Amino acid sequence: MSDATTSRFVSRLTRETLALVLAGGRGSRLKHLTLWRAKPATPFGGKYRIIDFPLSNCINSGIRRVCILTQYKAHSLIQHIQRGWGFLRGEFGEFVELLPAQQRIDEASWYKGTADAVYQNLDIIRNHMPEFVLILAGDHIYKMDYGPMLAHHVETKADVTVGSIEAPRERAREFGVITINDRDQITEFQEKPEHPMGLPGRENTTLVSMGIYVFNTEFLCQRLMDDAENAHSSHDFSKDILPGLLNHYRVVAYPFRDVQTKTQSYWRDVGTVDAFWETNMEMVDIDPDLNLYDQNWPIWTYQDQAPPAKFVFDDDGRRGMAVDSMVADGCIVSGGYVNHSLLFPRVQVHSYVYLRDAVVLPDVDIGRYCRLRKVIIDRGCIIPPGTVIGENAEEDARHFYRTEQGVVLVTREMLGQERQHIR
User: Would you say 310 and 338 are in contact if contact means Cβ atoms under 8 Å apart?
Assistant: First the structure.
């Protein structure tokens, strides 16, 4: 098959696909970061929200029909989608639709699980008449062309295709673990097992699910209706739907690899405070594995209207500068020193500040003489002058949230400041 024929084949598949982004989860392991916002709405990477990554993957893959299923504290998420994702043209059959939990089945039925969330919107899915449904998690960081996965689904005659990635065995208990045969058909699926199995000959590596599924539409509808009638089901894709299909249907794994090099592609679950900090810190590396500057695969988002970043004062001991860092629009580094850190829009760093290994969310003001290291500062915090964080573990844990790896999360409530509207 020629490249042109392959391209047309894939583009036909993407046009006939409806993407469902599951964005209703709280993300409780992110602790105070998700007390007032859904996990997919959490700021990431200096100017984005986490949900921008799967949505950008859809647009860049040619999938222009997208539904976002929301539930938990969704206001900031809905606001972001309305502001930043309204550029698709409805008259061309393109859209990003928001599907909030509406108790569509009965008055007591909020979404019970991921499968139930899709089941409660079956009428909307059928109205769009897609041939395929692509189900995505709204809370992972990665760049992926979904077209080849759809082609793999069709070529293997699969009933379901599951995106898969290799993970260190010690972390695999956080995911759904997959066992496959020599034809990539899934023979076993375990949700967050205590003792995950390693790969043959590679005992320290495990194959895990990315939470990405391709279904033939009518097959999905029938399976969800069957699951809804099962009183013993938790109505979750990874716990109930997928394990129940293995003995009767063709469930195939799609390995997420670089098309040219065949090496493992970048994918991160930022489900914990440590993982959130680590993944943001990866963005400021000299040559990060995830290239945000790739013009061929842009990450789309809502653009804040803010002036350029500014660095002022050039005196000994009071020099406004940032080294090995990413600094977003609207920031003012006024006689402070920023090293290996990531500043979101409209952060102000005052004189004599020392900031290192810091993830600072928007609208933060850091007072004079502060020394902050290995921190996440939540949106809108005002850090009082002279504050020291990251040098005394006991003091940090007494006032803030400190992880086992020593990352300190700071919010307005912890500082005794009145909570503002969380965006």
Answer: no
373's enclosing H/E stretch is: strand 371-377
Residue 302 lies in a domain: no
Q: Domain check: are 21 and 166 in the same one? A: yes
Same domain for 325 and 254, yes or no, is: no
Number of domains in the chain: 2
Q: Which two structure tokens, joined as six digits, stand for 187?
A: 């023979």
CB contact at 8 A, 292 and 283: yes
Say if residue 264 is in the same domain as residue 316.
Answer: no
Whether 254 and 320 map to the same domain: the answer is no
Nearby residues of 183 by Cβ (< 8 Å), 6 or more positions away: none
Domain at 209, CATH number: 3.90.550.10
Where b means 16+ CB within 10 Å and e means fewer, 154-189 reads bebebbbbbbbbbbebeebbbbbbbbbeeebebeeb
Kindly state whether residue 291 falls inside one of the protein's structural domains.
no
Give me 255's structure tokens: 């390995």
CA dihedral sign, ordered 61, 66, 71, 75: positive
Rounded-to-integer distance, Cα 414 and Cα 399, Å: 7
Interatomic CA distance for residues 77 and 70, integer angstroms: 8
257 and 357 in a single domain? The answer is: no
d(C-alpha 24, C-alpha 68), whole Å: 9
Name the phi and psi angles at 222, rounded to 5.
-65, -40
For residue 349, the enclosing domain spans 310-410
- List average pLDDT for each run of 10 residues in the chain, which is 423 residues long: 72 96 86 92 96 97 96 90 88 89 64 91 95 96 96 96 93 90 92 88 91 97 96 93 94 88 87 96 95 94 93 96 98 98 98 98 98 98 98 98 97 90 59
CATH of the domain at 360: 2.160.10.10
| Strand ranges inside 146-299, DSSP E | 160-168, 176-180, 186-191, 205-216, 251-255, 267-269
Handedness of CA 236, 238, 243, 249 (dihedral sign): positive
421 falls within a domain: no
Does residue 318 sit in the same domain as residue 213?
Answer: no
- Say how far apart CA 34 and CA 63 lie, in whole Å: 29
CB-CB neighbours of 30 under 10 Å: 22
